[in-house]
Specification:
heterodimer; A: mainly beta; five-stranded antiparallel β-sheet; 0% helix; B: seven-stranded mixed β-sheet; four-stranded antiparallel β-sheet
Chain lengths: 112, 115
């Protein structure tokens, strides 16, 4: 069993929809949680960075962490075709970039 | 924001040759860079941690003599795939750690195809 599980999708939604992306994990020591967006044939781009449980909002993006359930989510409001990409969750025990464990990514397509 | 570049963006080579990939932090100094490998529809797998002025730290299962890493300056790390074989074909991505040490900025990746 993988430490981080992420539904690979693909996920297809109409423009303007609310998108929910999720990851579950098994390591209770994870404290730092990240969401990355990766366009095809490009490197990942950091979207959200959260420490411990709670919510964090940045524009149309909201990250939620529920450590009791070992479950994290990324919500995208008013989705746009430009949001079409693969979204990777990542998490780590310590605040040390490079020690993150990544999910396999969810491929999202937002149709105009 | 922090920018990391990689060169080349894609390379095709014959089996048995060596390929060098460069990773540069363009607007900040990075004492630590990371090298990842990503297969299609799979996640990033950390290969090694590259520290400026010292030897790289390789993850378990990664051959250090196969994947040579050099981090000679605060803005440049190189990965050399020696005696490449078709199974080395993959997407190689580098990242550089930010000053806060908590975040990393990824390069655009290098697609390697070994024939």
């Amino acid at each position: 069993q993988k430490e981080v599980e992420q539904d690979p999708g693909p996920l297809s939604v109409p423009e303007g929809a609310i998108v929910s992306l999720n990851c579950t994990y098994s390591n209770s020591a994870f404290q730092y949680f990240m969401w990355y967006r990766q366009y095809s044939r490009k490197g990942p781009e950091l979207l959200m960075y959260t420490y411990s449980s709670g919510n964090k909002e940045d524009g149309r993006f909201t990250a939620q962490v529920d450590k009791s359930s070992k479950y994290i989510s990324l919500f995208i409001r008013d989705s746009q075709p430009s949001d079409s990409a693969t979204y990777l969750c990542a998490m780590s025990e310590v605040a040390n970039a490079g020690k993150s464990t990544f999910g396999d990514g969810t491929t999202l397509t937002v149709k105009p | 924001g922090a920018v990391v570049s990689q060169h080349p963006s894609r390379v095709i080579c014959k089996s048995g040759t060596s390929v060098k990939i460069e990773c540069r932090s363009l607007d900040f100094q990075a004492t630590t860079m990371f090298w990842y490998r990503q297969f299609p529809k799979q996640s990033l797998m950390l290969m090694a941690t590259s520290n400026e002025g010292s030897k790289a730290t390789y993850e378990q299962g990664v051959e250090k003599d196969k994947f040579l890493i050099n981090h000679a300056s605060l803005t440049l790390s190189t990965l050399t795939v020696t005696s490449a074989h078709p199974e080395d074909s993959s997407f190689y991505i580098c990242s550089a750690r930010g000053l806060d040490e908590e975040t990393q900025y990824f390069g655009p990746g290098t697609r390697l195809l070994v024939l």
